[in-house]
Design goal:
Layout: E1 5-7, E2 14-16, E3 21-26, H1 30-33, H2 38-41, H3 53-65, E4 69-75, H4 86-89, E5 101-102, E6 105-106, E7 129-132, H5 143-149, E8 154-160, H6 162-175, E9 179-188, H7 192-207, E10 211-213, H8 215-222
Parallel strand pairs: 3-4, 3-8, 4-7, 8-9, 9-10
Antiparallel strand pairs: 1-2, 5-6
Helix pairs in contact: 3-8
The structure holds dicarbonimidic diamide (C5J).
Pfam families: Isochorismatase (PF00857)
Protein name: Isochorismatase-like domain-containing protein
Keywords: Hydrolase
């Protein structure tokens, strides 16, 4: 018999068992959150993502205290770009494309300073870090195996950006049978109306591909 807890969420409360729940923190990398990285190279105001950092940090601390599996993801490519399709590489200004040199090293390349997770959310030993070449965290990664090995059934998802990598990952996870809860205030977007619409899309139609909650509600359910 396992103790189930109830998470306050929309469109409906969600029972969960901490032992089969993972916190998945998507792409909280310097390349997306700090000036000089991939996000800014695409013409974005990266300061729009900073509001997600304190809630994500609070979630991370609560998940560690509750002994949840914590998984971090990073979007990026091999230095030789062999895992980046031309269709992805050819976008953006030639001087600011994936692989081009920037103030934080080559843009979106594994091993470069910009590819690192921001210091506030630095992974601890024992927390899997999933390097992904795409927007979704399941595509071409070992995430499914990592979750299966721990019998995970519920994903609490936060990170950036709401409508791109968070959405793609949640859509992938939902189709694979995971209950996916997106923590709205711990997600961020360069385009505020896309953040709002992205959250609304998940929980519409009875929770068409997931649930939406808040960091306060998740922390309350874990404590
Ligand atoms: C983007 C991401 N926005 N992590 N990546 O290209 O959402």
């Amino acid at each position: 018999f396992r103790m189930h807890r109830i998470l306050t969420a929309e469109p409906s409360p969600l029972p969960f068992d901490p032992a089969s729940t993972a916190l998945v923190i998507i792409d909280m990398q310097r390349d997306f959150l700090e000036p000089g990285g991939f996000g800014e190279s695409l013409g974005n105001d990266v300061s729009l993502l900073s509001a997600a950092v304190p809630p994500a940090k609070a979630l991370l601390l609560a998940a560690r205290a509750a002994r949840l599996l914590v998984v971090h993801t990073r979007e990026g490519h091999r230095p030789d770009l062999s895992d980046a399709p031309p269709s992805k590489l050819e976008r953006g200004e030639p001087t600011a494309r994936i692989g081009a040199p920037g103030p934080m090293g080559r843009i979106l390349i594994r091993g470069e300073p910009g590819h690192d997770i921001i210091p506030e959310l630095k992974p601890q030993d024992g927390e899997p870090v999933i390097d992904k070449p795409g927007k979704g965290a399941f595509y071409a990664t070992e995430l499914a195996e990592v979750l299966q090995a721990r019998n995970i059934a519920t994903l609490i998802v936060c990170g950036v950006t709401t409508e791109v990598c968070v959405h793609t990952t949640v859509r992938e996870g939902n189709d694979r049978g995971y209950r996916c809860v997106v923590v709205g205030d711990a997600c961020g977007s360069y385009i505020p109306e896309f953040h709002a619409a992205g959250l609304a899309m998940i929980k519409a139609q009875g929770g068409i591909f997931g649930w939406v909650s808040t960091s306060d509600d998740v922390i309350a359910a874990l404590s």
